Backbone:
C-alpha cells in the first residue's frame, strides 16, 4: 500500500515527538539516583525542572513566529539540532546549576516540536482528518515515555548515567537527515466535497477562499479565541508536566519502586496514554464523518476526556501499586485525547499562516501553568510529603477547562481569518 506524502511526513512527526519525549524523560528516570548523588532537595529539583519549562515557554513563542515567517523545514531542523546537543550536554553537567543550564538549553530546542508538527498537520490534512493525524504524531510522546524506562536504566547500569544522555541525544541528528531529504513545501489536496462537513466546504465558508496575509503578533494573540485556548491550556496542561517529572519519584517514594523496576509501571501508564491519544483523535474524526459539526465533535470528545480525567483524583488514596498505575494511566489517556482535540481545534479555528504563532502563545500559557504547578509541587511535598492533594487538583482541571472553553467560545467558524 502506497503511503501518501502527508502520512510520510506525519510518521516523521511521530518519530520527532518520540525522540523529544525520550530526551526529556532521561532526567526524570534518573532523578532518584542523581538526587542521591548530588544531594538535591525537593525544592532544588523543582528549580531544575522549572529551568526547562521557562526556556520551553520562551522558545515556543519565538519558534511559532519563526515557523509562520520562514516555514517549517529548516526552523524545525535547527530546533532538533539544538535540543539533541543540549540533551547530550547533560552528561557533562555538575550539580544543580549545571543541570539547570542543560535543561534550559534542552527546553529552548524542544519548544519547536509541537508548533511545527501542528502547523504541518494544518497544511497537509483537512479538518476531518486533523484530530486523528494529531493524535497519531502526539502518540509519539507516549512511545518515548514507554521506551525511556526500559532503555535508560539499562544504559545507565551498563555504561554509566552519562551515556544515557549521550546516546538518546544523538538520535535527533539521525532524524534530521530523514527530515531534510523528505520534506518539501506542502501542497494540500482538498477533501472531496462529498466527504466534507458543510462547515469545511468553500461555498459554505467563503472565508477559506480569501487570501491571507501574515498578521502581526498582536493581531493574532489578542483574539478572544486565542486567549481562551491559552487559559484552557494554562489550566489543563500542567497535569502532563507533573506526570513527566514526578511520576517516577511518586512511584519510588510512595510505592517503593526502584529505578531498575520502574519499567513496567511506566510502560503501562504510557501505553494507556497512547491508546487515549489515538482514540481521542479518532473519536472526533468519526463524529465529523458521521455529519456532526466540527466544533461539536471536538467538544463531545473533550467532555469524555474531562470525565475520565477525574479518575486522577483517586490516585493518592490507592494503596495498591497497580491500582494507582491504572488510575494514572487512564488519566494520562484522557490528557492525550484532550490534547489531540485541543490541537485540532486550533487548526480548525485559525488559518495555517497563524497556526505556528497561536501554538506558540498557547504553549507558553501551558508551560506557565506547568511552572506554577512544579514550584507548588516542590513546596507541597517539602511541607507535607504527600501527593494526594496534587492529584486531586490535576484531576479536576479538564472539567474546568471544558466549562471555560464551551462558555467563552460557544461556537466557531472553521479557519476564520
Residues:
Amino acid at each position: 500500500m502506497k503511503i501518501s506524502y502527508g502520512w510520510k511526513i506525519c510518521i516523521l512527526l511521530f518519530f520527532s515527538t518520540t525522540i523529544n519525549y525520550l530526551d526529556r524523560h532521561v532526567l526524570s528516570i534518573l532523578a532518584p539516583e542523581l538526587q542521591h548523588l548530588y544531594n538535591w532537595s525537593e525544592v532544588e529539583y523543582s528549580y531544575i525542572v522549572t529551568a526547562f519549562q521557562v526556556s520551553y515557554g520562551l522558545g515556543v513563542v519565538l519558534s511559532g513566529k519563526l515557523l509562520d515567517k520562514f516555514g517549517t523545514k529548516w526552523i524545525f531542523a535547527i530546533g532538533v539540532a539544538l535540543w539533541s546537543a543540549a540533551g547530550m550536554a547533560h552528561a557533562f553537567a555538575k550539580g544543580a546549576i549545571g543541570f539547570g543550564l542543560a535543561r534550559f538549553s534542552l527546553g529552548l530546542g524542544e519548544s519547536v516540536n509541537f508548533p511545527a508538527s501542528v502547523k504541518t498537520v494544518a497544511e497537509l490534512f483537512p479538518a476531518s482528518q486533523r484530530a486523528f493525524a494529531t493524535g497519531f504524531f502526539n502518540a509519539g510522546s507516549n512511545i518515548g515515555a514507554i521506551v525511556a524506562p526500559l532503555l535508560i536504566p539499562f544504559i545507565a547500569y551498563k555504561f554509566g548515567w552519562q551515556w544515557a544522555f549521550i546516546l538518546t541525544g544523538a538520535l535527533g541528528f539521525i532524524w534530521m537527515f530523514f527530515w531534510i531529504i523528505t520534506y518539501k513545501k506542502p501542497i494540500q489536496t482538498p477533501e472531496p466535497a462529498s466527504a466534507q462537513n458543510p462547515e469545511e466546504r468553500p461555498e459554505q465558508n467563503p472565508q477559506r477562499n480569501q487570501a491571507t496575509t501574515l498578521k502581526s503578533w498582536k493581531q493574532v494573540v489578542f483574539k478572544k479565541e486565542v486567549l481562551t485556548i491559552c487559559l484552557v491550556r494554562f489550566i489543563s496542561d500542567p497535569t502532563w508536566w507533573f506526570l513527566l517529572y514526578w511520576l517516577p519519584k511518586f512511584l519510588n517514594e510512595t510505592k517503593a519502586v526502584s529505578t531498575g523496576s520502574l519499567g513496567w509501571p511506566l510502560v503501562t501508564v504510557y501505553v494507556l496514554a497512547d491508546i487515549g491519544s489515538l482514540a481521542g483523535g479518532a473519536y472526533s474524526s468519526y463524529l465529523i464523518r458521521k455529519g456532526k459539526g466540527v466544533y461539536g465533535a471536538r467538544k463531545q470528545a473533550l467532555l469524555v476526556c474531562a470525565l475520565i480525567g477525574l479518575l486522577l483524583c483517586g490516585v493518592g488514596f490507592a494503596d495498591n501499586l497497580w491500582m494507582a498505575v491504572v488510575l494514572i494511566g487512564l488519566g494520562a489517556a484522557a490528557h492525550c485525547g484532550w490534547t489531540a482535540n485541543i490541537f485540532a481545534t486550533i487548526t480548525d479555528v485559525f488559518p495555517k499562516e497563524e497556526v505556528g504563532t497561536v501554538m506558540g502563545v498557547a504553549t507558553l500559557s501551558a508551560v506557565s501553568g506547568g511552572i506554577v504547578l512544579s514550584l507548588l509541587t516542590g513546596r507541597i511535598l517539602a511541607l507535607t510529603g504527600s501527593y494526594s492533594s496534587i492529584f486531586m487538583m490535576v484531576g479536576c482541571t479538564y472539567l474546568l477547562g471544558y466549562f471555560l472553553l464551551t462558555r467563552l467560545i460557544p461556537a466557531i467558524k472553521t479557519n476564520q481569518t
Q: What stands out?
A: The chain has one domain: 5-181+216-408. The CA atoms of residues 63 and 112 lie 6 Å apart.
